[in-house]
Amino acid sequence: MLQDIVWIISLVLMAVVGLGWGFVLLNSGAREENYAPLQQRAYRLRARLFWGLVAVFGVPMVLTLSDLPYDAVRPAQAGGEAQVVDATGYMWRWELSEERIEAGRPVEFRVRSADINHGFAIYDEELKIVAQVQAMPGLTNTLRHTFTRPGTYRVLCLEYCGLGHHNMFAEFTVEERS
Predict the structure, then answer these.
(1) What is the pLDDT along the chain (178 residues), one digit of tens a residue?
(2) What's the CA gap between 24 and 59, in Å, rounded?
(3) Label partner for 52 (CA 20 to 30 A): which of 67, 117, 135, 138?
(4) Residue 51 region, left (φ>0) first, then alpha (ψ -120 to 50), else beta?
(5) How far is 113 from 122, CA to CA, in rounded Å?
(6) CATH of region 71-175, choose from 2.60.40.420, 3.30.450.40, 3.90.226.10, 2.60.15.10
(7) Given the DSSP bridges, would you call strands 141-146 and 169-175 parallel, antiparallel or unpaired?
């Protein structure tokens, strides 16, 4: 719920910034005729550079937004009642209450830390991140996800937590529904 609110606020703020840029851009060309020819060329070059940067960075950014795992923080819709997995981070290990999960059924990970901050990240068999959330002492964060592909998934820590950080992982298996 909180993630949805933050997402909406972020979109609104991005729109406000975009409107501000658009306003400045539309009103900046009106005074160009008052400048010397060399300055006019510089302003035209700057405008081309701006739109070039928008094309190079903006278009791919918008086109790849759908690849981000934002659906992992929204409540899973398919498959009935959610499986609950309690995940606790310790220096330098994860403890999971379940090691077998059904594919196609929503999973609710209740993530907490017993000591310091950890990053709870789920990776598929190709080591691509599927979903992630922060594990913090004294707070339980909820991560919801529906796994569609069976296989072995790894939980790795995304936040450096000390000398044994590189060994901090756990595994669970996603199996076909019976």
Answers:
(1) 677 787 788 888 888 888 877 877 777 665 555 667 777 788 788 888 888 888 888 877 777 776 665 554 444 455 568 899 999 999 989 999 999 999 999 999 999 999 999 999 999 999 999 999 999 999 999 999 999 999 999 999 999 988 999 999 999 999 998 7
(2) 21
(3) 67
(4) alpha
(5) 16
(6) 2.60.40.420
(7) unpaired
Residue type, 105: R
Backbone phi and psi for residue 8, each to the nearest 5 degrees, phi listed first: -65, -45
Structure letter (DSSP) for residue 75 = P
- C-alpha–C-alpha distance, residues 108 and 131, integer Å: 12
Query: pTM of this prediction?
Result: 0.58
Residue type, 49: L
Task: Say how many CA atoms lie within 13 Å of 94 toward its Cβ.
Answer: 31
Q: Which two tokens stand for residue 53?
A: 């940067």
